[in-house]
Task: inverse folding
């Protein structure tokens, strides 16, 4: 148990007793919802949690945060924590130093204020309207909005509209260049759901032929790859890149993907991989029978709950020998803790928490419900059980 006093230099206004377990839980809860977070220290970004890993431990009455990536490795003892405006501010001690310093974990790369985000989205909506009027003069803009729609799980990130020409129409969805890449990559999912909403609302009036999707210039690679695999008989899929400054657009041919970024990899023997990880799979499913198992390679499998990875099995060499064995690590997002007898309780807690949150009727505001909505949709599509678009929509988190 550690006692903290107010320190003007760090700005921590705390005079109370806090245990290492409390600090561990604070870090774990925050980081679980911060898959795209960045870690700042001494005025600069030192870790990007979309590529780095971390573990949190509370042994011997100390809260230790371990961060590592291909470039660097760092261990910090956490002595205090404060959450404000999406930033976890930590008072930490470096090894061999008694005086605490400050480390910040920023949940979002987008550090704009809510007012700035709203202003940018409103300006983009006006810009998109002008673009549509010039590029499609024979269409009428029936509606264009970025307002929150809780009923259909649409947030203010995307501008949504409908273009009409006679009895024909197209659903329209656009995202501005100031949004995160994750939001841009998710635009196609929300575009499909928006088209489905338009078809249901206009069923007796209009034929909604398809979707016109607008993304920032230079940020369409993933979206184009996904759109190329959509069913052309179900709708007309049209993708455009927007140059916001010039207010110009260019239509992309999703069928013309070339072979510049393709690569040939060895297809793993899935049955052999399942046998290789049989013991690890049995250990995970003993606590979570519904766990989905995904074969990543001959030496690695992922364990998921509705698409959200919470554990991974991999073949590693035993230190000091030539033997290899299957090891299981667990954690949501960038967290990675080795599953051994000491961590069995923490793993059981994670599984129980996950099972209680990540299901169709789960709390939509919870981080575990909202994480990796694309993976959740993928798991629904690949599931043998039927699922309607309305069911899928009810399971997707609302964009912020």
Result:
């Amino acid at each position: 148990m550690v006692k903290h006093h107010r320190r003007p230099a760090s700005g921590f206004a705390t005079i109370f007793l806090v245990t290492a377990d409390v600090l561990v839980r604070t870090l774990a809860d925050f980081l679980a919802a911060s898959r795209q977070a960045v870690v700042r220290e001494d005025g600069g970004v030192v870790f990007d949690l979309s590529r780095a890993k971390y573990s949190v431990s509370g042994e011997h009455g100390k809260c230790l945060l371990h961060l590592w990536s291909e470039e660097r490795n760092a261990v910090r003892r956490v002595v205090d924590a404060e959450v404000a405006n999406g930033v976890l501010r930590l008072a930490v001690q470096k090894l061999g130093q008694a005086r605490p310093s400050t480390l910040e974990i920023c949940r979002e790369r987008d550090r704009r204020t809510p007012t700035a985000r709203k202003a940018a989205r409103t300006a983009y909506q006006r810009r998109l309207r002008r673009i549509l009027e010039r590029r499609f003069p024979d269409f009428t803009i029936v509606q264009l909005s970025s307002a929150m729609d809780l009923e259909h799980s649409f947030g203010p990130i995307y501008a949504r509209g409908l273009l009409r020409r006679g009895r024909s129409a197209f659903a329209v969805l656009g995202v501005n260049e100031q949004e995160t890449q994750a939001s841009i990559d998710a635009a196609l999912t929300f575009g499909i759901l928006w088209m489905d909403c338009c078809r249901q609302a206009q069923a007796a009036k209009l034929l909604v032929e398809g979707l016109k999707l607008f993304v920032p210039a230079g940020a369409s690679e993933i979206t184009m790859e996904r759109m190329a695999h959509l069913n052309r008989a179900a709708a007309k899929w049209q993708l455009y890149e927007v140059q916001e400054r010039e207010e110009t657009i260019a239509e992309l041919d999703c069928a013309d993907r070339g072979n510049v970024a393709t690569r040939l990899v060895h297809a793993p023997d899935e049955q052999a991989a399942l046998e290789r990880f049989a013991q690890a799979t049995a250990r995970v499913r003993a606590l979570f029978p519904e766990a989905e198992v995904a074969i990543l390679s001959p030496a690695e499998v992922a364990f998921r709950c509705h698409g959200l990875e919470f554990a991974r099995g991999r073949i590693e060499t035993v230190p000091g020998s030539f033997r290899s064995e299957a090891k299981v690590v667990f954690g949501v997002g960038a967290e990675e803790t080795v599953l051994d007898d000491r961590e069995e309780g923490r793993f059981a807690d994670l599984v129980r928490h996950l099972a209680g949150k990540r299901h169709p009727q789960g709390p939509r505001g919870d981080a575990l419900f909202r994480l990796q909505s694309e993976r959740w949709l993928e798991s629904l599509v690949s599931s043998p059980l039927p699922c309607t678009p309305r069911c899928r929509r009810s399971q997707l988190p609302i964009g912020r």
The radius of gyration is 24 Å. The longest strand covers residues 73-84.
